[in-house]
């Protein structure tokens, strides 16, 4: 792992998520705890905000915080890099109790919150996600400055959440029940590490004739899971579409790279697909949804991408205005919204102007379910 630009001399005191023994082993190796000693910080407590996976912080209090004291220079550098990625703040001096002796060290103030932090509850909810995220961060540390990864932390956490969600088993009544563990993964390297990520795999997989394939090299675009929702007002029989410039069509050479789509957004770590759908409708279109109807959950381009979509129809009351603006300036979103009648929406489907898979699937599903939705409105 590379050395962080943040240079720390002397021992480092770790607590909270950074002091979780499983995370320390992930960063320092299985023998990493041999480099640590138990220490205590008096008159402090560890607190956090509910729903934050890696964030906790110190605040004054009547408690006594137990943590780890790390003195090895290479271990300190690795942990300082991780703390910088997590935005844990500038190192602060503290006086610790170490086996009855007072020692001076540095620690990171972190992000205190309104709730006491408890390791067991935190590890049950966020432990696996944290280890997934730390694995990606560790793999990139030698090539990407910590400050750059800090800007991409939400994407890292979303990719980790998607990988965990993929563990959910779906039926294999027709397809092969062969599991991923039977694939012989020879190498796996990160080939591109920007806002998006690509991995190169060399592997062999079981064939349908019960033999193993020859070694093959494949590149995978590592994306997040996303939720997409087509807002529909069954009383007025209208839908809302969003329009925005899209890099995919532009990169393909499309003469008109502005695309009509459902409302869509990346699932943040800790969110359900339904929560993301409701949040994105507020952000992109200012809409409160009454109810969500699940359409499908599916891979988009399984030949080379991990991207996974959750499609919904969102029942709502659409406003009278037919054209509006939406999106977040902080995400450089320039979004125009269109509210159109059902017949015109289906005309887009028939003419080909509806030219992306999620919109086509949503409109075809609406065709099938429209009578039921209108009858119960």
From TrEMBL:
A motif (Nudix box) lies at residues 265-287. Gene3D superfamilies: Nucleoside Triphosphate Pyrophosphohydrolase (3.90.79.10). One of its GO terms (biological process) is ribose phosphate metabolic process. PANTHER family: ADP-RIBOSE PYROPHOSPHATASE, UDP/ADP-SUGAR PYROPHOSPHATASE. Keywords: Hydrolase, Magnesium, Metal-binding. Mg(2+) binds at residues 264, 280, 284, 333. Residues 222-362 form the Nudix hydrolase domain. Its EC number is 3.6.1.13. It comes from Roseovarius gaetbuli. GO terms for cellular component: cytosol. The keyword Hydrolase applies. Belongs to the Nudix hydrolase family. NudF subfamily. Its cofactor is Mg(2+). It catalyses: ADP-D-ribose + H2O = D-ribose 5-phosphate + AMP + 2 H(+). The gene is nudF. This is ADP-ribose pyrophosphatase. SUPFAM superfamilies: Nudix. The keyword Chloroplast does not apply. CDD domains: NUDIX_ADPRase. Acts on ADP-mannose and ADP-glucose as well as ADP-ribose. Prevents glycogen biosynthesis. The reaction catalyzed by this enzyme is a limiting step of the gluconeogenic process. GO terms for molecular function: ADP-ribose diphosphatase activity; ADP-sugar diphosphatase activity; metal ion binding. It comes from the Bacteria.
